[in-house]
Amino acid sequence: NSSEILKELFPEVHPSSNVGKKHGGLILVASLLHKPPNLGGLCRTCEIFGVAEIVISSSKILDEKEFKSLSVTAEKWVKITEVKLDGLKEYLLMMRKRGHTLVGVEQTAQSKCVTSYNFPLKTVLVLGNERE
Questions:
Q1: Which distant-in-sequence residues (6+ apart) come within 8 Å of 50 by Cβ?
Q2: Which of 62, 79, 116, 117 is the most exposed place for a label (fewest CB within 10 A)?
Q3: End-to-end CA distance of the chain
């Protein structure tokens, strides 16, 4: 299977080789996202890029078939924290007090290109709402 081939060719980047190792300082807040396929794909992407933590509004999503089919077990390798919408503001203020820079990501007329932003080591990246 392709996973075994990749593991054999690139053992240093296989998720199991990262267990217990320190990740980067990026925390991705996805509490405003609710669609299982989007969150599953996002979780997989976070695993690949070494995101330290993902924040979601409900841990129940982790058991959904659509989430699991796209996350490809990434939830085993990335720390996932539940922060419900009614506690999101308090969570973000707490993270700011702990020295994290808060960065909002949403596509608007005044948006700046994220690729030109120099992210501080301790960053909380907050994703905007999904389109319906």
A1: 18, 23, 24
A2: 116
A3: 36
